[in-house]
User: Which sequence fits this backbone?
C-alpha cells in the first residue's frame, strides 16, 4: 500500500516537474534561443548555436559506439524508441536519418528543458515520455517499433534481464535493437557486481556481464546478434576511470528480432515453463507485432566471441564525428 502511494506520487511528481520544466524551457527558449541553455550541465557536447558547443561529460575523442552503429541501419520511415535518452542526441540522429516517428523516454524530466533547446536548434520533432524505472516498459508504452536503442542503460539497473524482457514486446517482428553496455572480457557465464565502486565510482552502476552471458540472454529473449563493435577499456584515455581488476570493454550489439529462441534443451524448457518468462514480458504482444522491413548493412548472425570481436574493435580515440559530440550540420 505504502509503496503504491509512493510510486503514484513519484509519477505525479514527475508529471508536475515535466510541466514546470516545459514552461520554464519554453520561456528560456523564447527569451534567448537554444544558446540560453549553454551554461547548464550537459551529458553530450552539443552545438546549440553556430560555433558554440556545450561541454559534455566525455572527452571529444571518446568513441560513442551506438552512434557509429546507427550508420549501419536504414531508418527511412522507421518508428524508433530510444531508452534513457538524456539530451536526445540519438533521437536527433534518428530523425535526421529519416525516421517517421521517434519516441524518447527517460526515468524523469531531468533533461526535458535541454531537449527543447536541442529540438529547436536541430529543427527535429520527436516525442518524449517519462517512464520511471525501465522495467515493464511494455506496460508503459503503446504500439510497436522497428528500432529500439538500449544503450548506456543496462549497467545502471539492478536487473538488466528485466529491462530487456520488458521492452522486448515493443519490438516489431524482424525489427532491430541496439544493446550497448559494459562487459567483462573473460570466458564464463557470469556478471561482475560493482561492489564498493570497484568497476566505476558512479553510485548507480551495478552489473557488467561476460560476453557469453549477454549473448545467452539475448538469444533467450529472441534477439539474434547480427553486428557488433567493441572498445577495450584499457585503450581509453579518460578522466573517468574505466579500468578495474578484470578486463572490460564497451560493447555495442545490433540484434534482429526472431520468432523463436535459438534454444538448447534447458532454454526450451525455461521458455515454455518458467514463471519469469511468462510474467515479466508479454510474448503474445511480441508475436502480434507487425513484421518490420527495417534494413541493416549486416544480414547474417554473428557470435559474440572474443575471436569475433577482435576484428570488430574500435580505436580508443576517434574523431568527433564518432564521439558524444553533436554538430548542427551532422546528419549521422
Ligand atoms: C549513461 S546515460 C546513457 C544515455 C544514452 N542512452 C546513451 O547511450 O548515450 C544513462 C541513461 O539512463 C537513464 N537511467 C540511468 N539509470 C536509470 C535507472 N535506474 N532507471 C531508469 N533510467 C535510468 C539516465 O537518466 C540516462 O538517460
Assistant:
Amino acid at each position: 500500500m505504502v509503496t503504491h502511494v509512493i510510486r503514484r506520487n513519484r509519477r505525479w511528481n514527475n508529471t508536475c516537474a515535466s510541466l514546470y520544466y516545459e514552461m520554464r524551457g519554453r520561456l528560456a527558449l523564447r527569451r534567448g534561443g537554444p544558446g540560453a541553455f549553454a551554461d547548464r550541465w550537459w551529458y553530450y557536447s552539443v552545438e546549440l548555436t553556430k560555433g558554440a558547443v556545450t561541454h559534455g561529460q566525455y572527452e571529444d575523442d571518446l568513441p560513442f559506439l551506438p552512434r557509429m552503429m546507427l550508420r549501419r541501419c536504414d531508418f527511412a520511415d522507421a518508428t524508433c524508441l530510444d531508452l534513457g535518452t538524456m539530451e536526445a542526441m540519438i533521437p536527433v540522429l534518428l530523425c535526421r536519418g529519416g525516421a517517421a516517428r521517434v519516441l524518447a523516454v527517460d526515468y524523469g524530466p531531468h533533461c526535458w528543458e535541454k531537449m527543447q533547446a536541442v529540438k529547436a536548434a536541430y529543427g527535429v520533432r520527436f516525442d518524449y515520455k517519462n517512464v520511471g524505472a525501465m522495467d515493464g516498459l511494455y506496460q508503459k508504452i503503446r504500439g510497436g517499433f522497428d528500432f529500439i536503442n538500449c544503450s548506456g542503460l543496462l549497467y545502471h539497473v539492478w536487473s538488466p534481464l528485466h529491462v530487456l524482457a520488458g521492452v522486448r514486446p515493443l519490438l516489431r517482428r524482424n525489427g532491430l535493437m541496439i544493446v550497448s553496455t559494459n562487459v567483462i572480457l573473460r570466458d564464463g557465464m557470469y556478471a561482475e557486481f560493482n561492489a564498493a565502486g570497484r568497476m566505476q565510482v558512479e553510485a548507480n552502476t551495478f552489473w557488467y556481464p561476460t560476453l557469453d552471458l549477454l549473448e545467452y540472454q539475448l538469444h533467450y529473449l529472441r534477439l539474434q546478434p547480427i553486428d557488433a563493435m567493441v572498445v577495450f577499456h584499457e585503450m581509453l584515455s579518460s578522466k573517468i576511470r574505466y579500468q578495474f581488476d578484470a578486463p572490460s570493454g564497451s560493447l555495442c550489439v545490433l540484434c534482429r528480432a526472431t520468432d523463436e529462441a535459438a534454444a538448447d534443451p534447458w532454454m526450451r524448457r525455461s521458455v515454455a515453463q518458467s514463471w519469469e518468462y511468462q510474467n515479466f514480458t508479454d510474448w503474445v504482444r511480441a508475436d502480434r507485432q507487425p513484421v518490420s522491413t527495417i534494413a541493416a548493412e549486416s544480414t547474417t548472425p554473428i557470435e559474440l566471441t572474443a575471436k569475433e570481436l577482435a576484428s570488430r574493435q574500435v580505436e580508443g580515440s576517434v574523431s568527433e564525428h564518432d564521439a558524444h559530440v553533436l554538430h548542427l550540420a551532422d546528419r549521422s
About this structure: The domain at 2-326 is CATH 3.40.50.150 (Rossmann fold).
